[in-house]
Amino acid sequence: MSGTVREQLLARAGDPGAGLLFEDAAWTWDEVVHASAVRAAVLAELLPHDGPPHVGLLLDNVPEFAFLLGGAALSGQVVVGLNTTRRGAALAADVRRSDTRLVLTDATYAGLLEDLRLDVPVLRVDSHVWADLLARHADASLPQASVTADDLLMLIFTSGTSGEPKAVNVTHEKVAHPGRFLSERFGLGPGDVAYLSMPLFHSNAVMAGWGPALASGATVALARRFSASGFLPDVRRHGATYATYVGKPLTYVLATPERDDDAENPLRLVFGNEANERDIDDFARRFGCVVVDSYSSTENAVIVQRVPGMPPGSLGRPVEGVAVLDPETRAEVPVAEFGPDGRLLNAEAATGEIVNTTGAGAFAGYYRDPDAEAERMRGGMYWSGDLAYRDAAGFLYFAGRTADWLRVDGENLAAAPIERVLLRHPDVAEAAVYAVPDHVGDLVAAAVTVRRPLGADALATFLATQPDLSPQAWPRFLRVLDELPRTATNKVLKRRLTADGVADAVPVPHP
């Protein structure tokens, strides 16, 4: 069993099968491994020898990113995935806190770095200097390196939806293991093509896309960036049988004009997390594939498994050791109680934080951030920061982030169940529920994007027909936006919605 990504790459050396596709270019796996060895040699020349061998990549999903990631895996170097949506002092802080010793970028993002004091070299991979370096090391052999499963391969920043992003330690095992597991689970092999449109600086593309393709010998097809209109043409052009997503890409693809031949494509499986049930079903029907949505995070410390016949809206059933605990008492919360109309009767008591009570799981810590690690690892247990409740059969239901608590009329409410109600409306494409401060406690506000015009009166009429919506959970304000503020990995920035207030909102009639 391969415990490192280095071993998995070495297993692809000499493989004549298709390894990488990008636009109109193609490389065999053997060529990918050699290109990776060349980049390892270049980085060995460029990186200082007196500190951590960390190289920051400020790039889209271009072949250089894949080759540099492979080179780091072969040689024991570490890729720092720099978020291409970060700007100014925030981007510079990411470079500093990750001990990045060299930043590689290209014409697309070089301008973001021009006025920043980074105190490290910046080199463009589309420059003649880079081309000369590659030519000088063109005959590089596979590097000799001692790499273990616990060694760092990447630093991947969290999305930062509830604060400053944290650099997650991504070891070789954190990529090699899910690569093996997912490729076996989904039956991926050399005949498959994995389409990667999520950014390579994030865990989804690396752990759920690149890793399984590498482990199984499937082909990686890179999209420079995600494009809703370009998704299906890319799938057809590359013959993609497998694709990944995180957040709302399914919603965006479904918003493109439907055609009679949409299901005429090679796609058989789409895997990701945070899609809503309606989009999962609609996407599978429209494009003739299976969509598997899974609870996940970059830290990868909590496992909740989807099983056949699970209730609508459920995340699945947690593995042994995963529980829902009260953050204050650290006791397990009561089982959720539902009325005959489906309404959650004991929401405040039954909602708690998802916790790995056995320890850290696959969480390898945050880089140079002991305070953040201590916050995650309280009492020897991993606290996910995600809220949930569980039914009598043991199924978990996502209730939002710990920052998604709203205090309404003396009752704690979670945002996610209200969002699920809003998404039942046929005209609502996306929904984000957040708190608006009141004199005492909060009022519920909803920001939505819509398929067709939606007014406050029409929404109120719809909400009145939803038996499981409590009076306290009724949205008092409606904001219809062209798009919700999101991170680069499609997660909603609710703190920005809260900061924007409700000046552009309309009141929703309340019964």
Automatic annotation (TrEMBL):
Residues 22-367 form the AMP-dependent synthetase/ligase domain. GO terms for molecular function: ATP binding; long-chain fatty acid transmembrane transporter activity; long-chain fatty acid-CoA ligase activity. One of its GO terms (cellular component) is plasma membrane. Residues 418-491 form the AMP-binding enzyme C-terminal domain. SUPFAM superfamilies: Acetyl-CoA synthetase-like. Belongs to the ATP-dependent AMP-binding enzyme family. This is AMP-binding protein. It comes from Nocardioides luti. The lineage of its organism: Bacteria, Bacillati, Actinomycetota, Actinomycetes, Propionibacteriales.
